[in-house]
Amino acid sequence: MDRIQMWWHGRWTVPVVSGLLIIASFAVTEILDEGFWGDVLMIAATVVAGTPVVIKAVSALMIKVIGIDLLVSVAAIGAVLVQNYWEAAAVTFLFAIGHSLESATLNKTRSALAELVAVAPDVAIVVRGDQQIEIPAEEVAQGETVLVKNGARVPVDGVVTGGTGALDEASITGESIPVEKMTGDTVFAGTISTGGFMQVKATGVGADTTLVRIIHRVEEAQEAKAKTQQFMDRFSKWYTPGIMVLSVVFGLLTQDIVLALTLLVIGCPGALVISIPVAIVAGIGRGARDGILIKGGEYLETSAKIDAVALDKTGTLTEGRPYLTDVVAFLSHIDEDEVLRMAARAEAGSEHPLARPIIEAAAERGLPVLGLPQHTEPVPGKGIVASLDGHRVAVGNMALMEMEGVADHGEAANAAQAAEELAAAGRTPMIVGCDGRIIGVLGVADRIRTDAPAMIAQLHEAGVKKVIMLTGDTQLVAEAVAKQVGVDEVRASLLPEDKLNAVADLQRQGHTVAMVGDGVNDAPALATADIGVAMGAAGTGVAIETADIALMKDDLLKLPQAVRLARRTVNNMRQNIVIALTTVGLLLLGVLFGGVTMAIGMLVHEISVLVVIANAMRLLRRHGNDRAAKTTETPRPSEQPVAAQRA
């Protein structure tokens, strides 16, 4: 009984019943020679298939919307009134079939969202007291310990507190290769254990998980309209009434009611209306599968126009884990260890990323770095000044030394030369001054990410004309990095507001700019850019919600992949518009010059709708370049140091 009820309310019920009535009508007419009952059955088929269409048309009219359903309703009712029962039944039957096929195939274009919802965990095993208890996943409390066994879905976002395992994170990052997890590593809800046993402390539960944020983001993105779609919506509001007026005019001029009704059917803009949204849904769905979250149709369309990409250096082109490479001392009574110790003491009060490698290097050498400075004064874009046991210590660039009046002594020339040599070698020089004298120079370096050169090359292949590196480092340091990765332009020694100005300058030159950064120092530039891109956003809820494009995996090659996807989607939209307009144009010519009937017109119209949908569904397949990128062996990390960014 349940199965019968499901079928009765299913999407195929109306076209199947209508089709059977049409077959019965032909059988009664041809075999039994009962023309009257044949007409009755044909009218019944029209009523079955046409009633849902008329209801939708009336509902739309009540909110002052003239849509496709109204055109079909008028044509079908008109055909019945002029006793053209076969045409009325054929039009409504074909429209019902088209609607059902459209619904089925549109569900496939939304398959990425369905897959995300499907991986949402239902249950969790939590440790309460000495017992393992199975509860609904949404009932796990913050801070509780969850057990993840082999083959199970992780029910929460959390941190591994015990055990080891491997997780398939494809639903979050798009990466199909399982990732090894051990104590201290982060795990995400919806990922699947492929081996091992882990204890996980819940840090994100229920709606506060990365998976739920992604689902919400994809839902909103697939509903958001691109500018082209907004134009098409406005166009269809005028187009549909225009077709009705055209049909009335031709009917009055030719006194041919059937011709007028046929024009109504032929003029249905179904393929045109659906051409944009179906491509956007498919494109955003493909991106979600690959760990690329795009905010909506407007941002997808804008991304296809990107011809300039601005990149932060540290953490984007480089690994973002700087280390100390050199210590140079200038004064005979202060050796290298003392230079490093004093610099580490000064940096102990700094929150800057370059403070840590200096402090860690001092600890590795066994140098005492105890206590915080009595006073710390960060100088944006230059370095830091600290008071240490009655000494004034400055660590930063030559501009800071000049500001401190330290650059006037004899060792300044040696410091400048040493800094230049370190910069030329791809290191960030940090000059150390104490009580009015320069006592030494430190060299700090980062490593270029192995996929950075390939990312730049692929961006160029994808049609990006200019890739610019924006950095707070000196020009010499920045050029050393740029030479290794292949960027087109370098803008160095920039403060956060300078990066904003650099992006604005590119826009004034006519470029559509994407900015890739960490979202902290680069926040103004990210907001100003046409498209702001956040990388490695899986663990950052704010980035998922706010970035125009969020790359869930910290993988540089996802950036050119996102650009390629946007261009493919927009090309697909254009193809669909051409298909729709060409079909309507040819059918109108066919009606006016004879040969195209109402039934043939509706059949061709529905075929064009399906062609448009099928064309959009090609976006759901992974592109050849993206497949190649997935299978390319990752090169070994380069040992070539590059400069780390001071500001």
Automatic annotation (TrEMBL):
Entry's Gene Ontology molecular function annotations = ATP binding; ATP hydrolysis activity; ATPase-coupled monoatomic cation transmembrane transporter activity; metal ion binding
The way it spans or sits in the membrane comes to: Multi-pass membrane protein
TM annotation in the entry: 12-29, 61-82, 235-253, 259-285, 577-596, 602-620
Q: Which UniProt keywords apply?
A: ATP-binding, Cell membrane, Ion transport, Membrane, Metal-binding, Nucleotide-binding, Translocase, Transmembrane, Transmembrane helix, Transport
Name all P-type ATPase A domain ranges: 120-219
Q: Does the keyword Transport apply?
A: yes
Q: What are the record's GO terms for cellular component? A: plasma membrane
Cited SUPFAM superfamilies: Calcium ATPase, transduction domain A (SSF81653), Calcium ATPase, transmembrane domain M (SSF81665), HAD-like (SSF56784)
Identify the stretch(es) annotated as Disordered: 625-647
Give one Pfam family. Answer: Hydrolase
Q: Which subcellular locations apply to this protein?
A: Cell membrane
Mostly located where? membrane
What family, per the record?
Answer: Belongs to the cation transport ATPase (P-type) (TC 3.A.3) family. Type IB subfamily.
Q: Which NCBIfam families match?
A: ATPase-IB_hvy (TIGR01525), ATPase_P-type (TIGR01494)
Protein's recorded name: Heavy metal translocating P-type ATPase
Organism equals: Nesterenkonia alkaliphila
